[in-house]
Amino acid sequence: MSSSPRPFFSLAGLRYGARAALPAFPGFIMFATAFGTAAAQKGLSLAETVGLSIFVYAGASQMVALEIWQQVWTPSTILTIMTVTAVVNSRMILLGATLQPWLRHEPVARSALNLFLLTEAGWLIGTRYHGEGGRDVGVLLGTGLILWAVWQIATIIGYFVGALVPQPRTFGLDLVMPIFFSVMLVPLWKGMRPALPWLVAGVVSFVTHALVPGYGYIVAGALAGVVAGMLIK
């Protein structure tokens, strides 16, 4: 990302970011509702469920945490859940690093909030905006805040009524996020060479997912993409 002109922050950017996130709402609602339902079925209290969504705010990690959730905790199970969720979420380190040129002049508190609220959808919206010449950091924060709020509301709805909602596949809702990402990526196309790291990441993730159980494919794909990008440059 270019550092010129200098990034700035505005309330108009906040509003723009919130509007730009609208296409991601269906996917977020579906995923958060599913989490709320799964948490209720697992026996978590409403406070525990909402607490996970508020403070962890990472769909894949929250789902993984539910899989190994215990009614009685021991040091080993606590270490296990911390390790697994950290591994699943490690991809966010790479996404956050790409925002450094954009956020480096921001106040520490606002940068920290932006990074806490960062999701793949928010990162993609912000990256596309920045790639088109935009420099208002408010866009990134506006996207993050609205998606975080949607996630909390949908989690609560899922906790109480998720079991009554028909299967998302019935209405094709499971395709919303893949379509959203595909459409958003089109303007970022700069030719085959810059796209090679993405292709490598996708292939490695797919192969790892097929051969290795668990969520290691997320980390494997991310690291493969980074290595491919470094080699190409």
UniProtKB/TrEMBL annotation:
Protein's name according to its UniProt entry: Branched-chain amino acid ABC transporter permease
Similarity-based family: Belongs to the AzlC family.
Alphabetical GO biological process terms: L-valine transmembrane transport
Predominant localisation class: membrane
Cellular localisation: Cell membrane
Gene Ontology CC: plasma membrane
Keyword Transport: yes
Keywords assigned: Cell membrane, Membrane, Transmembrane, Transmembrane helix, Transport
Entry superkingdom: Bacteria
Source organism of the structure: Microvirga makkahensis
Transmembrane segments: 20-40, 52-72, 78-99, 137-161, 173-192, 212-232
Membrane topology, from the record: Multi-pass membrane protein
